[in-house]
Each structure stands twice: as C-alpha cells, then as structure tokens.
Amino acid sequence: MKKYTLHMFRCAAAASIVVLVIAPDARGADPDPFWGPDKALHFAVAGTLAGIGYGTTTALTSDRWKAFAVGGGVAIGAGALKEGLDAMGFGDASWKDFAWDAIGAACGLGIAWAIDVGVQGGKVPPLTAGASASLRGVYATARFGF
C-alpha cells in the first residue's frame, strides 16, 4: 500500500511539473496577474480595515470573537462592495483582487490580535468573556440537555 501511494505521488508530481513547464508558453499575457501591483493595494487596504475594525470593537466589548467578526466583516464587505461595483460596470471585476482582500483581512486580523496580546501583557484574551459564556452554557444545557 505504501509503495502504491508513493508511486501515485511521484506520478502526480511529475505531471504537475510538466504542466507548469508547458503552460506558460501555451497562454498569452495575463491582463490581471495574481501578483500584479494593484494586488498590494487590495492587501493593504483590507488589512488596515480589518485591524481598525478589530481594534475599535475591542474598545467596545471584551468578546474577542466579536472583534474578529467585525474586523473581518468590514474588510471583506468593503472588498465585496468594490468588486460588486466593478461587476456592474464601474471598473474591472477580478476574483484575484477579492482573493487579495481576503488574504489582507486575515493578515490584518492576525496583526491586530498580536497587538492585542501585547497590550494584555502577553496574556491571550479569551474569545468570549464572562457572563455571556456562562449564559450560553446554561442555554445549551437547558435546550439540548448536554
């Protein structure tokens, strides 16, 4: 079984290398490359929006899951709005732009969380704070019996 799996892996790797070597010659220049210069702007803006959303929410609530949700929602929402407007004819819609928005949002949330941990003196804040966690446990026990 191990030899068969290893053989399949080698064949898949060889086929992938052949495709990667031949494919660039077979297609023309991409008008919207994945590593294009505008992608850095999508990454930076989404990361900044996610970080600002996370930081603002931590000032209003101690539930970190809400900070992640708001920060990510703001960044992804802004990217989706921009690509939606582009799709309606106000620009050139691109899934690659939206992918960089999502990558930037994730990185921005990670940086904001790392700053949050640093501000807390290295102590990782819980995702859910105090009363809401205990109430959620009571509700789950009463409703579902576990």
Helical content stands at: over 70%
Number of strands: 0
- What is the radius of gyration computed over CA atoms, rounded to a whole number of angstroms? 22 Å
Low-confidence stretches: 138-146
Characterize the quaternary organization of these chains: single chain
Largest sheet, strands/sense/barrel: none
Percent strand equals under 5%
Mean pLDDT: 82
Instruction: Give the helices and strands as they follow along the chain.
Output: HHHHH
Work out the helix count: 5
Shape: globular
Helix-and-strand structural type = mainly alpha
The rounded distance between the terminal residues' Cα atoms is 42 Å
Plain-language structure description:
The protein has 146 residues and is mainly α. The protein has a domain at 37-127. The protein contains 5 helices and no strands. The protein has helices spanning 2-26, 37-60, 64-90, 95-119, 130-144. α2 (37-60) packs antiparallel against α3 (64-90), α2 (37-60) packs across α4 (95-119) and α3 (64-90) runs antiparallel to α4. The longest helix is centred in the middle third of the chain and has 27 residues, at 64-90. The chain is globular, with a radius of gyration of 22 Å. The two termini are 42 Å apart.
Quick synopsis:
This protein is mainly alpha-helical.
Task: From the structure above, extract its key features.
146 residues; mainly alpha; globular; 79% helix; disordered C terminus
